[in-house]
Amino acid sequence: MKQNQLYLIIGALAIVAVGLAIYIFREESKPSGVELRIDETGISVQEN
User: Fold this and answer.
1) What whole-number distance in Å separates Cα of residue 7 and Cα of residue 14?
2) Which residues pair with 36 in a beta bridge?
3) What are 1-48's pLDDT values in tens digits?
4) 3-state secondary structure string across 6-44
5) Which of 7, 23, 30, 37 has a beta carbon 3.0–4.6 Å from 44's, enabling a disulfide?
6) Does the keyword Membrane apply (predicted)?
7) What are the C-alpha distances in Å from 38 to residues 32, 33, 35, 45, 48?
8) How many domains does the chain have?
């Protein structure tokens, strides 16, 4: 039973690490500057 718990903990840590890596990659790849959005609600300007 202990070996199954160890595999479960290692698997959970691997999933967390992959999720964190994806999050960091997406945050780093966002363009910096100003985002201008025009849609049916009007014009939106956001600073990144």
Assistant:
1) 10
2) 45
3) 688 999 999 999 999 999 999 999 998 887 778 888 899 888 888 876
4) HHHHHHHHHHHHHHHHHHHHHHHCCCCCEEEEEECCEEE
5) 37
6) yes
7) 18, 17, 10, 9, 16
8) 1
